From TrEMBL:
This is Uncharacterized protein.
């Protein structure tokens, strides 16, 4: 993708982030590497419910051919939503929770990493199977498949639930006003911290020429 196309795509993505009624979170100032906007998710009424911010190496069009050596972390911010009726009035939508953040982080990791030796024609079957597993794991956040991890949020220690797999790691917890999820590969989760984003528009700026994707962690 050329520079002009990337800038246009970032501007479109930024509109969604600016429409949110909750604060966005990313890695704190301990991370000095590249940051970028990923995508937002909206409810049936068009209200932004969640979104992700990437850090480190961005996905590439040919990232799955050969060995995947990318190093990245993504932070998923999820709005706190109460139980509410569906727009068609036929049922209710569950309240968001840390399990919601865990599910979004787990599915995000799967979308970003899949076995390089897997034939592309079989990818959807693999993704469907692993997504079902990720859903079950997220629904049992207090179960034995998760461990406890304390990480700083806005400079204060906050408990998270954490698990590793062959594809990377996933964690989920809470922050002031929102729920947090995160996933990554090639970067240790143990040295990370989270902070509210002061100016989300800065994340839409292109990476300066010659700048590295990775920073301190």
């Amino acid at each position: 993708m050329d520079t002009t196309s990337r800038a246009a795509g970032a501007a479109v993505a930024l509109d969604g982030y600016l429409a949110a009624d909750f604060p966005w979170y990313g890695l704190d100032e301990g991370w000095t590497g590249h940051r970028w906007l990923m995508q937002v998710g909206a409810g049936t009424e068009g209200t932004v419910d969640y979104g992700s911010i990437g850090h480190g190496d961005e996905p590439a069009a040919r990232q799955y051919e050969g060995q995947d050596t990318r190093r990245f972390a993504a932070v998923v911010t999820v709005a706190r939503r109460p139980v509410r009726r569906s727009t068609d009035g036929t049922g209710v939508m569950e309240a968001t929770s840390a399990c919601s953040a865990a599910w979004l982080a787990g599915s995000g990791l799967l979308s970003a990493t899949w076995p390089g030796q897997l034939d592309r024609s079989l990818r959807q079957d693999w993704l469907d199977q692993q997504t079902a597993i990720a859903w079950d794991l997220a629904d049992a956040l207090d179960g034995p498949n998760w461990s406890s991890l304390s990480l700083p949020v806005n400079g204060l220690p906050q408990p998270f639930r954490y698990r590793e797999s062959e594809y990377g790691w996933v964690l989920a917890g809470e922050a002031p006003g929102v729920l947090l999820g995160a996933y990554g590969r090639g970067i240790s989760a143990y040295g990370l911290g989270f902070a509210a984003v002061g100016d989300i528009a800065r994340y839409a700026e292109p990476r300066p020429a010659g700048a590295t994707a990775l920073g301190a962690s």
